[in-house]
Design a protein that fits this description.
heterodimer, A: 114 residues, mainly beta, seven-stranded mixed β-sheet, globular, B: 113 residues, six-stranded mixed β-sheet, five-stranded antiparallel β-sheet, 0% helix
Chain lengths: 114, 113
Amino acid sequence: KAGVTQTPRYLIKTRGQQVTLSCSPISGHRSVSWYQQTPGQGLQFLFEYFSETQRNKGNFPGRFSGRQFSNSRSEMNVSTLELGDSALYLCASNAGGTVNSPLHFGNGTRLTVT
Amino acid sequence: TQLLEQSPQFLSIQEGENLTVYCNSSSVFSSLQWYRQEPGEGPVLLVTVVTGGEVKKLKRLTFQFGDARKDSSLHITAAQPGDTGLYLCAGAYSGGSNYKLTFGKGTLLTVNP
């Protein structure tokens, strides 16, 4: 079974631009979560989707948005990029739909904002 | 905001030594998970603990969940260079969302040969 796939692996953007990151979950997993990882703050929860519905959102500004498609693939978008958005963005899928089931993470997208 | 404190933040030891990593919160967890993350990769689940006082063993790794379900520890016996990585604890808070985990900032472990 293929794991969680995130594309692209690396991105370099300029302040003010926008970016879209993609995540393909493990086949059959309907829950997809997004996390931002930085050295200072660790992993911080962005949002979670299940069957195309956002069920939970973290404490991030509205510049961060996401969506999920009918095939469970998910995208997240960051508009008006700031230097502080530089981070590793991790996507995780989950078979059971709740945190009682383990999260399966992709290898992340490393975003650098200059 | 619920915080999950991990200690120590950094740990550098020699092969063969034992170590313990701690994860603490002022709130009660409904469940707690431990992950290990290696450079360039996403975190990988090691174990989930659910019951207060629970102890789980995974080869040389022993995980303990506090009786009050507010803390957890990870003990590694006879560490090996392959144990090097970032160890993360993550909790689902009792009464909180079932759809998000709160992560600690991690313990970066280096095992020197």
